[in-house]
Specification:
heterodimer, A: about 220 residues, alpha/beta, 2 domains, two-stranded antiparallel sheet, globular, B: alpha/beta, Beta Polymerase, domain 2, 4 helices, flat
């Protein structure tokens, strides 16, 4: 143990001690925790569906699965009011610029869930000429939910994972999220319709293909 | 309903030389009628309005791409022996190029008479510059989007179509993806488990595979699994 006082005073009290104090009616918290707690429990998704995954997303918002338990029941019809873009379905190359534009129109802090095989990689249409091979070619994705389509429970689990990510964010320092950082990088380049393909076919600043060591 | 042969004969009496029968040799035996493009609009309106047919509903319009095809024919030729012996029978192979075309197929039904389908076909002159066909949208409104789709994916230009634009691909797109000779953009990135044609693409993009050296397992003396 060192004698130096930690810079972050909240780190002095462990989570177990804080829970013990909470049981005695004493609420101790940090600004960071309060801020992230508030944000993570009101993630408003964009009311936006692309394909069959959107049907599961709609089912998640209805009474049986009830996404309101996690504070995300307010599907906003405007990207200006939304925090979360659920890319629910196949992103065709014709639709991709509109998806990126919607993402650009959303205000920071904003998050993206790629729901289903198509949104992750193009899915069964990956080798076709008209489907984008994953929305992460153009916008940063926070949570990937595999499935074709994923069950509503899987979407809820993805939302819980996103809430965990939000609660783990630091509001200062080099690990600060995008919207608290120095760079104003909430605008992403929108691809253009080219004569044969989208131009550019991917945003190299966001996504690079993994390096492969191919076995012969 | 009358058979396709009877329908062809009736149409030939009215439009001489404008109709051919395309036989379907399969068990379905769904024969179709190949129309001359110059008379296709008039024949379509006749099929729609003829009181015995009343084909008032075009359920489907689709395109077919027939690329240029090299046909090899083997003919038995009798060659006389110059030495005066018996003549020999020799197989002579001739190759000819069957020019390709684009084809549009319409499936017609009658809601009023409850019969169908009557299948009609139109063929373009070739696959490059003579690709104009008369639009049948003035006869059947349901052809509109499907003819736009054929225009988009096959490149058939429909003369007389009210709104001929691309419908699936974007307007700036130049290719016709459903043609047999379409080359898709080379946008291969990676595949975790490539096989088949994807494997060929992977080899083209990763031409020099890094030899994977298996980690040297510690040799265990005298133990067999």
């Amino acid at each position: 143990m060192s004698d130096a006082v930690p810079a972050d005073s909240a780190a002095v009290i462990s989570d177990a001690e804080r829970a013990e104090l909470r049981r005695h009616g004493i609420l101790l918290t940090s600004l960071e925790e309060l801020y992230n707690w508030g944000r993570s429990h009101s993630v408003w998704p964009l009311q936006f569906g692309l394909a069959c995954c959107a049907i599961e997303m709609i089912a998640t918002s209805m009474a049986r699965f009830d996404i309101a338990r996690f504070g995300s029941e307010v599907f906003r019809p405007s990207p200006r009011q939304a925090d979360l873009l659920i890319v629910s379905g196949t992103v065709t190359k014709k639709m991709a610029p509109q998806v990126v534009r919607l993402w650009n129109q959303m205000a920071e802090p904003k998050y993206c869930i790629a729901m289903g095989a198509c949104a992750i990689s193009g899915g069964p249409f990956k080798q076709g000429y008209n489907v984008l091979k994953g929305i992460d070619r153009y916008i940063p994705v926070d949570v990937y939910i595999p499935g074709c389509p994923p069950r509503p429970e899987a979407l809820l689990n993805g939302l819980i994972k996103l809430q965990e990510q939000i609660r783990g964010q630091k509001i200062a320092g080099p690990d600060a999220p995008r919207h608290l950082g120095k760079t104003d990088a909430c605008e992403y380049p929108v691809p253009e319709f080219g004569p044969h393909d989208l131009e550019p076919p991917k945003n190299p600043a966001v996504w690079q293909p993994p390096t492969i060591t191919r076995k012969e | 309903m009358e058979t396709t042969e009877q329908l062809r004969d009736r149409l030939l009496a009215r439009f001489p030389g404008a109709v051919q029968l395309v036989a379907n040799p399969g068990p379905a035996a769904q024969h179709s009628l190949l129309l001359e493009p110059a008379h296709a609009r008039a024949i379509a309106e006749f099929l729609r309005d003829d009181p015995a047919l009343l084909l008032d509903y075009c359920s489907n319009a689709t395109g077919v791409d027939w690329p240029d095809k090299e046909i090899t024919e083997t003919v038995k030729v009798t060659v006389p022996d110059p030495a005066g012996g018996p003549a020999k029978v020799v197989d002579q192979k001739t190759t000819r190029l069957q020019p390709g075309c684009l084809e549009v197929v319409y499936h017609l039904y009658s809601m009023a008479r409850r019969h169908g389908p009557v299948v009609i076909r139109l063929r373009t002159g070739n696959r490059t510059d003579r690709v104009t066909l008369p639009s049948l949208t003035p006869a059947w409104r349901s052809c509109e989007f499907q003819e736009r789709e054929i225009f988009d994916l096959f490149g058939v230009i429909f003369d007389g179509h009210p709104d001929l634009r691309r419908i699936l691909m974007w307007d700036e797109f130049k290719d016709h993806p459903m043609r047999k000779d379409y080359v898709e953009p080379d946008d291969y990135e990676w595949e975790p488990t490539p096989h088949g044609t994807v494997m060929d693409k992977a080899k083209a993009h990763h031409p020099a595979p890094v030899p994977v050296v298996p980690p040297a397992a510690p040799a265990k003396e005298g133990t067999q699994p």
